Amino acid sequence: MALSASLRRFLRRATASIVALGLAAGALAACAGAPSGTEGTVALLLPDAKTARYETFDRPLFEARIAELGDYRVLYSNADQDAAKQQQQAESALTAGAGVLVLDPVDVAAAVSIVTEANERGIPVVSYDRLVAGGDLAYYVSFDNEKVGVLQATAFVEALEGRGDSTGGILMVNGSPTDSNATSFAVGAHSVLDETRLEILAEFATPDWSPDKAQTWVAGQIAQYGDRIVGVYAANDGTASGAISALKAANVDPWPIVTGQDAELTAIQRILTGDQYMTVYKAMKPQAELAAEIAVALLNGEEVTAPLEIDGTPTTLLDPVAVTVDNILETVVADGFWTLDDICTPDYREACIAAGLVDE
């Protein structure tokens, strides 16, 4: 089975990366010789719809690659941030005859029971994007999540230092306490922030990655700390949107530096207008396609290999990329993640012209 054209392009761009080179070898080993046209069912279990990437990219990219690989069926479920609902969806998928589960857990600890039940039935589980906290996993594919936090915090600190705010106060709006990736983001961010003279005024683990909860918390911190706040470290674009709504409602001036992650369209547009300083672009197409290829290989009883192991699980970690107003063209546009037509709608055309994305 050949790798997808998009994944080959991704790997060519990342030839300097040892991880990416390992991905090429691992994916080829996983997929070599897999028969085409074999019938089978793969269950894709995603955690929520609040994070735009899942319905916009992960699901359609995964399903499209599965369709390219042969006569396979995808049973799709979204748990809407409900761990009990995800458990029920997994049980339903197993009852319906799923031969592989591709699982992005709502709660990494609670999802162990899903893995255990699948193991008891001899069904392999691919941990997708978030690493389940136990069980016999067949594969794990994600991004280098501590590096995400390092990229966010590094850009954050550089922007603040550029404004002369190297000793100011910051808020940390972290991700969901049930998401192991959120912990990794925070660890990576702290590895940078704790070496600076910035003061962390307060820190919050955002339940369910909810923008509304992030907004409410940031509003409370603004009331307490006021103009001491020079920046808001937000772990993803959803929590960034909540933080920005709170900052706008309070008419905060001067405007703080705000981070994000996932390169959501609205975040790219906020970067153009200056409301958000940066986001982190994660090439979800290679991630989704590799997960699909691994799932089909497992469905056909093939051995899979990977460049890394985490807790005994074959693992591929892809490289994230920081995006600011200065490299939108070279990252999300160059990869076809978003087009200029997507980004430069009439409301954002002037900002696109100012950023050099389009001509007047």
Distinctive features:
about 350 residues; single chain; 7-stranded mixed beta sheet; alpha/beta
Please provide a written account of the structure.
This protein has 360 residues and is of the alpha/beta class. Helix content is 45%, strand content 18%. It has 14 helices and 13 strands. It has a seven-stranded mixed β-sheet with strand order 2-1-3-4-5-12-11, sandwiched between helices. Strands 7-6-8-9 form a four-stranded parallel β-sheet, sandwiched between helices. α3 (53-69) packs across α11 and α4 packs parallel to α5 (112-120). The longest helix has 18 residues, at 145-162. It is globular, with a radius of gyration of 21 Å. The relative contact order is 0.15. Residues 1-38 have low confidence and may be disordered.
Set down the secondary structure blueprint:
Elements: H1 5-13, H2 18-31, E1 40-46, H3 53-69, E2 72-78, H4 83-95, E3 100-103, H5 112-120, E4 125-128, E5 139-143, H6 145-162, E6 169-174, H7 180-193, E7 199-205, H8 211-225, E8 229-234, H9 237-249, E9 257-258, H10 265-273, E10 279-281, H11 284-299, E11 308-310, E12 313-318, E13 321-323, H12 329-333, H13 340-343, H14 349-354
Parallel strand pairs: 1-2, 1-3, 3-4, 4-5, 5-12, 6-7, 6-8, 8-9
Antiparallel strand pairs: 10-13, 11-12
Helix pairs in contact: 3-11, 4-5, 6-7, 8-9
